[in-house]
Amino acid sequence: MTYSASWRSPSNIALIKYWGKHGLQLPRNPSLSFTLSACNTEMRMEVTTSSSPSLEVRYEGTPKPSFEPKIKTLLEKVGDRFPWISQARIIIDSRNTFPHGAGIASSASAMSALALCLCDIDDQISGSPADLNKGWWQNVSEIARLGSGSACRSVYPGAAIWGYSTEIGESSDLYALPWQQHLADIYKEYRDTILIISAAEKSVSSTAGHQLMSGHPYADVRYAEAGRNLIRLTEAMAVDNAQDLFISIVESEALQLHALMMSGHSPFILIEPATISVIRHIWTFRRETGIPVCFTLDAGPNVHLLYPSKHESSVMSWVNETLRPFCVDGRYIVDHVGEGPEKIS
Ligand code: PMV
């Protein structure tokens, strides 16, 4: 028998950062992210029952052995949930809609797409038509987490929270919760223009970065601060008139992430001089125009410019005039808060 599933799944950008983990990809603090739209992975999985199991990983139709180890690791981790994996020929083909080599991590979109394909095929094999209810999505989120922590937040539209917080009912370290329903309208269509400051491979992977949080002198203070910031941010995002608070928390979280990298026992720096120049321009532009544009940073030098959709044309004119010269080959990606994964027929 042959089964197949195809899904498109987006990347996400954390506003409250997950940095530090333990056990089987469990977070040291809760995090909150916007789900993106333009940056996504499309994946097709084909599973044929076979007594000689195998895995073939392709990217845009061409064999891609370098992607295999991460996928194999996830398949091994979920072998007890999906016993058919050990008796199947599996072919996975994917493509990313965001440009290759733009320094944009694809693990969140790729691992969530993989989790979706696995759950979809499992439903087909078990003969039970998928009822895509809350439990189904939680299960997908949990499997995505095993592939890459932040991937568990990509499965919901709008925004997601991952990690236990005493103040957020149902929150869990195992899977993310949908958060769009708690957002004021302004945040449901926020824009994210991603300025590509460098497309080079990161000098320190996020796996290594998470590890450096064990024994980090500020670890405990940071985890407590992230927990507090999460609650303050959820309160700020529930209304449309607390944008100053939104901005101060989001920018502080971004800078704290990089401050942690710079202040551990094996310090490292992922931002570039241009990252700092861009941040200074953002602060000047915001002060001079009153437009509530702010930034966040991933574990890298690229700058995510976040702003309400109604300011898109003024922000983009300024980006083209002032910020584009700081981008490698003038590159940026225009993205926005998106609708979550989609099954492709
Ligand atoms: O999911 P990972 O292991 O790639 O870690 C992601 C870490 C950050 O992107 C820096 C923060 C986050 O919460 O997404």
Describe this structure in words.
The radius of gyration is 20 Å and the shape is globular. The protein starts with a strand and ends with a strand. Helix 2 crosses helix 3 and helix 6 (219-237) runs antiparallel to helix 7. The model has no long low-confidence stretch (mean pLDDT 96). 35% of the residues lie in helices and 24% in strands. With 345 residues, the protein is of the alpha+beta class. The chain is built from 9 helices and 14 strands. Strands 1, 4, 5, 6, 7, 8, 9 and 14 form an 8-stranded mixed beta sheet that branches. Strands 11-12-10-13 form a 4-stranded antiparallel beta sheet. A two-stranded antiparallel sheet has the order 2-3. (3R)-3-hydroxy-3-methyl-5-(phosphonooxy)pentanoic acid is lined by residues 14, 17-19, 31, 107, 148-150, 206, 210, 257, 298-299.
